[in-house]
Amino acid sequence: MKKEVFFEVNDYITLKLVRRMTNIYVKGERFRYSFLLNLNKREDDFRKCDQINSIDEVDVNKSNFNHEKVNSTPEKRFSDHCLTMQAWVRSDYDTRMLQVNLAFPLLKQLMDAGDPQAKKVFKGEIIKQLNSDHPPMLQFLVNGGYLNYLNQEELISLLNLCNDNLKSDSLAKSKRVGYHALFFKLRGKLGPQKIKEWRENLKKKDTLKGDLLTGFDFFSC
Questions:
Q1: Residues 79 and 137 placed together within one structural domain of the fold
Q2: What percentage of the chain has pLDDT greater than the value 90?
Q3: 134 — phi, psi (to 5°)?
Q4: Angstrom distance (rounded) from CA 74 to CA 30
């Protein structure tokens, strides 16, 4: 019988090589197949890359990272995955270090499994990434229901962020679309009354521009 290949990253995460594929297990429960990128940096170096909000941006920052070689062996890929996951754990679950569609579902499952570090950073990672200007990140978090984990004060803070960014004439079209989507989602979460109160507060501060959402009936509530 072939010996099982596995690696315990911490008390909650185990990686196993099964049928030439690397699987992630959270407290013994299989999470999903992992298709991770092998970072060519240590996590402390990664934090210095302020221009990168997520590993998903590697397509436009290829010089900083190395993709897995297509012809590498399953054992080599498994080893690389283990190193990447170790780096992620050492970074206190910094979601920039994994693809967004892996980082947040995995972080949530760790939190649900009782991981104290995941519980500690989960909400902060959501807020941090919603404050990024990376459209795919905003889209994933908005569509994935991650706004549901934020309280009213945090939602209003994000509303102010959207307002500030949408007033910028230099904001790229793709990013503008992302902020519009977040804007409308926040409206639905907060409700008409809170939106009106928010608008009145902005008027008092003289920060609301009349053409903020030209072509959008955002304030018709």
A1: yes
A2: 35
A3: -95, 105
A4: 18
